[in-house]
Amino acid sequence: EKGHSVVNCGKENSFGILCRDDGEFAVAHLSVAPAPPTEAEADAVLFPRGDCPAVMAELCCMRSSHEAGAWRTTRLPVRHGGDHLLWWETDAVVPFGGRICWVDYLRGILICDLFSQSPELHYGPLPVNPYDGRWHPDYDFGRTRGNLSLYRTVCVAGHGDGAIKFVDAAHRDLWFYGDDAHHHSASTPPNFITSWTLSSDWRTWTVDGAIEVEKFFDLTTRLSLGCIRPEPPVVDVNDPKTIYLVVKERVCVGAATFVVAADMLSRTLHTPVAYLLRSTMLSCGGGDSYTSSCDLEYNEPFLPCQFSKYLGQDVPDPDTRWDKKSKE
């Protein structure tokens, strides 16, 4: 373990913040990379462990109980990792149950108790076939994988302590399905939009809802919407069986955009809501320009939160509070 006062970790989506009920908090960054070879391995044509070298994980963490501004970097062991961690890339960071979860939408979750005296990383696979690679195979030079949150999401939802949910709405012709993608045409939709809940062992997923895409398109047609692939999936934080999806009438900038709520248990859709937040300069076919969030135009997902529930609560008048302290 080493301590330092400045942190420069590069990828912002690898940072997580965790707060405890006693007021202590931690900010952490995780990096996963192939472990440097030993001298013997460097001299060998192949690694003794096979074609795939081991990985190392470094946790850079600042806790409020540490000295002010003190960051500490620790190399952590990874339990149950396997060879797929060689291609690890963090897509999302989710705090849950006193732990931080780093998510790679192509393979799984790395879970760590930041407040443990001897923190470790535990790997839990997502209920998907892991992709043998990190980036889009056709764009390896640019080293990009696109925004996978358009197709998959991991979040915490439900009352009380909640539960970790995973939703997969990815269509089967996407590049990360590997060989399966070559057996589908560009217009082929996925078989299902499926949601899972993570069990207490942090490794087992239980399916708690699924809608066949043909069924979904049948429902959107009845609501006078098109059959454009829905994305991105967002879980209702208070009602985990409800998944919000964005549907456009056409695949172009400025197309009419709607948000629909899908009940994963009853396999029904609620009345769609037009998503109109800002004007756009372009529209499909001329005429009046439909509007949509700039986040959707740049393929950024929604940010679900409970902030709005606090807007109706009484807030103490700061002037009154100051007068009370002055009298004391």
Query: Per the principal axes of the C-alpha atoms, what is the gross shape?
Result: globular
Mean pLDDT: 75
Helix content: under 10%
Number of helices: 4
Written as H for each helix and E for each strand, in order along the chain, the element string is EEEHEEEEEEEEEEEHEEEEEHH
Number of strands: 19
Into how many domains do the coordinates divide?
Answer: 2
Biggest sheet features: 5 strands, antiparallel
Which value, in Å, is the CA radius of gyration? 23 Å
Explain what the structure shows:
The protein is globular and about 60 Å long. The protein is built from four helices and 19 strands. It has two domains: 146 residues, no CATH class; 156 residues, no CATH class. Strands 1-5-4-3-2 form a five-stranded antiparallel beta sheet, with no helix packed on it. Strands 6-10-9-8-7 form a five-stranded mixed beta sheet, with no helix packed on it. Strands 15, 16, 17, 18 and 19 form a five-stranded antiparallel beta sheet that branches. The protein is mostly beta strands and 328 residues long. This is DUF1618 domain-containing protein. It comes from Eragrostis curvula (weeping love grass). InterPro entries: DUF1618.
